[in-house]
């Protein structure tokens, strides 16, 4: 997508005993997996996320149920609906994300490229826009 986010189709082992999906670091995701966390028991109508990471990359999976992920790279916005246990939304660094519309029983599984470090978070949207702009200005223009 235009924000750099994309949905990755993960391996699926279909089985009458129940289906199975797996994720290998540096194979199905373009980073080493340093941390796994998950959101669960999310009350309907609440929103999670609301931050960006300076360096961390993540794969966001609706392990159960469904939710929406709104992303913003400072220039473009996109919205993804996740409702398959074998789909992962790859979210690069410097992308603001917000998760909402959790279904009842919805579980958001996150595979992250780094351990928890509060200094890597940008939790203020105005600051995010400023850092995103500064980074774009420091980068060579993409090929046209
Ligand atoms: P927060 O990042 O605000 O949740 P989200 O953005 O997903 O809605 O995290 C909530 C709290 O949990 C915050 O005090 C930091 C803490 N936390 C950890 O200690 N380790 C972790 O790996 C994560 C993701 C959060």
TrEMBL record:
Domain of life: Bacteria
Residue ranges occupied by any Sugar 3,4-ketoisomerase QdtA cupin domain in the UniProt entry: 4-131
Protein name: FdtA/QdtA family cupin domain-containing protein
Residue span relative to the full protein: 36 to 179 of 184
């Amino acid at each position: 997508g235009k924000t750099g986010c994309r949905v990755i189709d993960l391996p699926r082992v279909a089985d009458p005993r129940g289906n199975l999906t797996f994720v290998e670091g540096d194979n199905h995701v373009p980073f080493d997996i340093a941390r796994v966390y998950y959101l669960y028991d999310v009350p309907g109508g609440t929103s999670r996320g609301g931050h960006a990471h300076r360096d961390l990359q993540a794969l966001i999976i609706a392990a159960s149920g469904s939710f929406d992920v709104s992303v913003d790279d400072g220039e473009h916005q996109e919205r993804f609906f996740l409702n398959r246990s074998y789909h992962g939304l790859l979210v690069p660094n410097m992308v603001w994300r917000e998760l909402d519309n959790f279904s009842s029983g919805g579980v958001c599984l996150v595979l992250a490229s780094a351990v928890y470090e509060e200094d890597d978070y940008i939790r203020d949207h105005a600051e995010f826009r400023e850092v995103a702009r500064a980074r774009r200005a420091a980068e060579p223009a993409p090929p046209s």
